[in-house]
Amino acid sequence: MAREIERSTWRTQAWKNGLGVTHEIWREPDTEDFAVRVSLAEVTASGPFSQFPGYHRWTFFVGPASIKLGEVTLDEPGHHIWSPGTAPIHAELRGGPTRLLNVLARSDLIADYGETTSAVRFRFEVAQQRAWLYEPALVCDTAGCVWVAAKG
User: Fold this and answer.
1) Computed over its alpha carbons, how large is the radius of gyration of the chain?
2) Looking at residue 51, which CATH number applies to its domain?
3) Given 47, 68, 80, 151, which is the most exposed site by the fewest CB atoms within 10 A?
4) Is the pTM for the entire model greater than 0.70?
5) CB within 8 Å of 5: residues ≥ 6 apart
6) Domains identified in the chain, total number
């Protein structure tokens, strides 16, 4: 069954470094030791990202202004980087504040952008900035979307 995760239910919190805010969209389970967490970050200043030991991190550009993460510039919807949660990442804003969708997950999940034949648990429509949860996982239209699915 598909369920839209309404924006009014997203949890907003300041970053530990004070350089932006994060809107947590989905966390499972809803504990500190989660298996997956998806959040929309409002990046308002250049600086370091927090580290998340034990997780894989996918960071997707959702706009509007380009940003440089380490040596990679993200400037189009879906452009992203993957890194271990312990990797130091320094963000450099290129044209003002921007937004990034972050997926933190244990090793049994994957995240990507665009069309897939995988059954997805979560999808984020980049243009509309809307989020959907699928229980159970479902093959669906993922064009223009960031998605999370089980590996394999």
Assistant:
1) 14
2) 2.60.120.10
3) 151
4) yes
5) 25, 26, 131, 132, 133
6) 1
**What contacts 105, CB < 8 A, 6 or more positions away?**
35, 36, 37, 55, 56, 58, 111, 148
Residue 8 in 3-state DSSP?
A: helix
- In which domain, by residue range, is 35 found? 2-150
**pLDDT by residue (tens digit) across 31-85?**
999 999 999 999 999 999 989 999 999 999 999 999 999 999 999 999 999 999 9
Q: Which of 135, 136, 128, 131 is nearest to 147 (CA)?
A: 131
Q: What angle do CA 123, 128, 132 make, to 5 degrees?
A: 25
In total, the chain counts a number of residues equal to 152
Per-residue confidence band for 5, with pLDDT thresholds at 50, 70 and 90: very high
pLDDT in tens, 116-135: 999 999 999 999 999 999 99
Q: CB-based contacts of 47: which residues, under 8 Å, 6+ apart?
A: 17, 19, 90, 91
**Cα separation of 82 and 88, whole Å?**
12
Percent of the chain past pLDDT 70, that is, above it, reads 100
